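Record pair follows.
FIRST:
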Amino acid sequence: MEHTAQDEAPDDIPNDLPGAEAETPAAVEEGAAAGEDSTPAEDSAVVEDDAEDAEDVSPEEEFRRELRLQPGHWYVVHSYAGYEKRVKANLENRIQSLNMEDYIFQVEVPMEDVVEIKNSQRKLVTRVRIPGYVLVRMDLTDESWGAVRHTPGVTGFVGHTHQPVPLTEDEVFSMLAPTLAPKETAKAAAGGSAPSTPIEVEFSVGESVTVTDGPFETLPATISEISPEQQKLKVLVSIFGRETPVELSFSQVAKI
């Protein structure tokens, strides 16, 4: 019986034939080229997404994140009003002299920038936000408690005498966040371009004043409204037995 060439061909083709070797590198190179084309685009997209995420994080949220990652808890100690900064310096010196750096991490006196208006002049001042109090971030132990409690100028912890209660995250944020405001913002406030900065005035609602300028000059008046940003007052002036509201500038009235 005769066999054809087709019948004599083996059923299985070895993987190491020259033809197979010729095709495999080409396929690999093509796949690699495709991978090289897509990788930079994907990396660029990831970088852009990360940049957008970073831009979306507000300074307030970033500060909260830092608070969560910091070791220890925040406690409040009493001090004599007007001696807060001195107590802070005393505490920091005592931490070093007693080698308490591993237990007491940070001491802060909450500050704020305030625009004061006196004699119609705006002046930016930095003052203690909570007079008589100092914040301390620490791990509470008998030793760290004693180091803080016996610091000159400290009159005690807020809360239980020997077991003070730490502040919550929201409490710490509300006390320390104002100190994060950039100085440029505060300076802009002095020029009147940042209305969010607190403004103190020398007048108060219900106070009696004397009108010093305008048609009602020399008449007594009572302050009913104060607009610090506009440096305006709304006062009640008694005219013919009736109280009439009049809007005046700070410079048009004087304290009695």
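SECOND:
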Amino acid sequence: PPEPRGLAGRAFQVLALEIDHGRFERELWFPVEVDPNRTTAERRDGWLWIHLPLKGGSR
């Protein structure tokens, strides 16, 4: 996917890429804790960007 605007030079990783249409649901498990209170999602230019900040700033 194209690099998100405003993130030039910042690290990010695409963990899953799904090209489909219509309604769907996906459940994901991560090996680290994410902060659900800071999680955001947005649709931009036909892409769904999901930002999952780590809980407590851990790496």
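COMMENT: Residues 17 and 38 are 22 Å apart (CA to CA).
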